[in-house]
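Supplementary Data S3. Sequence and structure tokens for construct A.
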Amino acid sequence: MEGRYADARTLSLKALREAEQNGSGRERVGAVLDELGTTEYLDGRYKAALRYFERLVELWDGISSEKAVALSNLGQTLLALGETTRAEKVLRQSIEISAKAGRPWHVLGQVLYMTGRMGESEEAQREALQLADPGDSVLIASTRNDLAAVYERAGRYGESIELLEQAITVSEPGQARARMTASLGSTHWKAGHKEQALELLRQAKDEMEAAVGQGHEDTERIVLTYAEVLREMGRKKEAKAVEAGLARGLR
């Protein structure tokens, strides 16, 4: 029962046992399975999440919006486990059932990116943006971020920068936004905008430290990139100081 969501997991497991013992309907059992799968996913326990989402897909037989959502969640979990072939299959099944939902298109775009199919990934992310609920700022920001990654990989830095700026604008402060800011800084660096890159990486470092602490792997990644940029700009003393600060934070 370790992890940040141990209490939520305990409550949901109890609710699942009660629902099954009391012969509750599919709606109740399905809701609890979804809670458990989501909890495990957020806690990084992807194999456990996989089991719950697989059960959820089996629960919703036939064609229904509930099954489409369950397949989408299953696909995202499979992607986290690196099972891209199966992830693509279940995401396309979700899209067949509910072609107007933006989220499975977004995750499919991530799968296609991971498998090196950049053109298809761009098409999927554009479809996700078109279908996303205007009020779903998290999905919109994440989709713009991932589409920006496609453009950055193709050397289309201007388009990548524009999308990242749009994604950051609609994002709340925290870990996800800090990652986007770091990506924006790295893209500016590749585009030759050195001072902008340095300032953005500094902002990303500060925001990530505030969100998850100095010892987190995301913080370490951004700090090392920031130090590398400082060093390449000839500011070696500052780069050493930044790396020394990271070393103290990891102790």
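Construct B, processed identically:
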Amino acid sequence: MYAYAVLSHTSAAEYDDLPLVRRPDERHLTVPRACRPSVGPDVHIWWADLKPSEVRRMADPPPGSTAFVTAPTRTVLDCARYLPFREALVVADAAVRRGLTTRSALRRRASRMRGPGSPAARQVAEHVDRRSESPLESMQRGLHILFGFGDLVPQVLIEAAGVRLRADFADVRRKIVVETEGATHRTPTGLAADVRRYTALAVDGWLVVRFTWAQVVFDPAYVVSVLRAAYAARPRS
């Protein structure tokens, strides 16, 4: 059992510079089950008897703060226990993509978890994918998982009308491409590249649907309705 207060959950994710859809408005600490610390209103306490392998010392602890933080695998699974699925997937995908943990480690640890949030943690561990290159793509992929669009594969290389491109998501059998549009498409060069790639896809018979951050994050019902319409228009061959 680890005897000290340990920075954990989304606060530990923030320490490791993992992306969060919503920044925590409280500092999250995990303490041993037997402890009953006195804390301020901006601190959220979690109780768990952490193993030494689940804790590491901070490289630069703030003055007056704990000097310890949960290990990345523990951090990801802690976040998966209580965050909404898509937000937890953002943390997990980024941690695996950066090499802070692995899918196999997450699945192994999640399989042994018990108590509140354990099924949610196992769901995140099962679906984590390092191919998601941004929080936006992870949030979009979460919708595919939750609403049955699993044939939309991330980061698909496509040759269309003489143009070689990588789609954010593609269902090759139905010839559907899904693109999530961040802030990288706002320059004249970026716009020209986008026009060229989408024209090539259209000429080659692909159905392309595009979603913004606001739509994916704040209006998932709209995104799902568009995907359902696209699937209805393109039954699997």
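The longest strand covers residues 163-171. The first helix runs from residue 9 to 15.
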